[in-house]
Amino acid sequence: MKVSAGVLLLLCAAAGRGNCFLLQAPTPSLSTPLRLQQGLHGGGRGATAPPPPLADSPSVRVRPGSRNGGCWMAAASAGESWVHREASKTKLLAALGGLDRGFWATKEQRKEVERIIEELVAMSPDQSPAETLLKEDSKWELLYSDAPDIVGSGTGNGGGLSPSNGEIGQEFNAAEGTITNLVELKPPGALSSLLPDDSLQLQVVINARAMSPTRVGMNIRGTRAVPRNFGGVDVSRLPPLRLDLPVQPPFGEFEILYYDGDLRIVKTGQGYFGVNRRVAD
């Protein structure tokens, strides 16, 4: 029997009980015949292994099993969880379409987003997301928030004489142990046609630490204002205006409700949700 899609399924018994290892083969063209040896998971001599189920991820997974085929059942369950998780992620992204990160979200739309978030929270694949998130460099873009200090009351972005928001995101620096919140400010809607390229990036630099497997505590370190374009003139080479605080007061905390390396859902200490998607470095 040939293994499809380059996935090699190896069954072995260890310490008196079966364990199933799902391995992603290095090349998609690899095919390897599989057979179960006598007595392994209840198979007789020369028995052929059933088709391998969908793996939960390309990385190695160890699934405790039993000699009556429990290994196959565990692996199949993992594949089913992956399918359900991806379906809920797709549903969430569809619900966020047109909300402009929450700037245009109605009360009913926010309730629907929260309902889908609850689905995903139960399927988060990482049980220690705070440690995982803080130990590597990464960049994220904001997909959704219901925090008034970020998206206002949901009545729009840049109405009247208020500045409009461009890119909003975060950068994590593992070596420095910091999170930098990034907010791009643009001219109000009434002036956007006259000054379409003007922008100023505000940065808040935060010291971050894992308080528990899922909670991150923060202390504010300083702020920066980085000019990019002013009056139609490129001013990106000007040094940023910065304020480094001699004392770093608390800046709140957040709980990571869902994390899979690509999508991150958090809840702030004030009870607001945030949905972020990882972007290429």
Shape: globular
Summed up, the helix count is: 4
Question: Could you report the average pLDDT, rounded to the nearest whole number?
Answer: 80
> What is the rounded Rg?
24 Å
Structural class: alpha+beta
Let me know the number of strands.
Answer: 15
Poorly predicted runs of 5 or more residues? 1-68
List the helices and strands in order: EEEEEHHHEHEEEEEEEEE
List the helices and strands and how they pair.
Elements: E1 7-14, E2 17-24, E3 35-36, E4 47-48, E5 61-64, H1 70-96, H2 107-121, H3 129-134, E6 138-145, H4 148-151, E7 164-173, E8 178-186, E9 199-210, E10 215-230, E11 233-234, E12 241-244, E13 250-259, E14 263-268, E15 273-279
Antiparallel strand pairs: 1-2, 2-5, 3-4, 6-7, 6-15, 7-8, 8-9, 9-10, 10-11, 10-12, 10-13, 13-14, 14-15
Keywords:
15 strands, 281 residues, globular, disordered N terminus, alpha+beta, 8-stranded antiparallel β-barrel, 3-stranded antiparallel β-sheet, 4 helices, 19% helix
Summary?
Helices cover 19% and strands 38% of the residues.
What does the model show?
The protein has about 280 residues and is of the alpha+beta class. The chain has helices at about 70-95, 105-120, 130-135, 150, and strands at about 5-15, 15-25, 35, 45-50, 60-65, 140-145, 165-175, 180-185, 200-210, 215-230, 235, 240-245, 250-260, 265-270, 275-280. Strands 6-7-8-9-10-13-14-15 form an 8-stranded antiparallel beta barrel. Strands 1-2-5 form a 3-stranded antiparallel β-sheet, covered by helices on one side. α1 (about 70-95) runs antiparallel to α2.
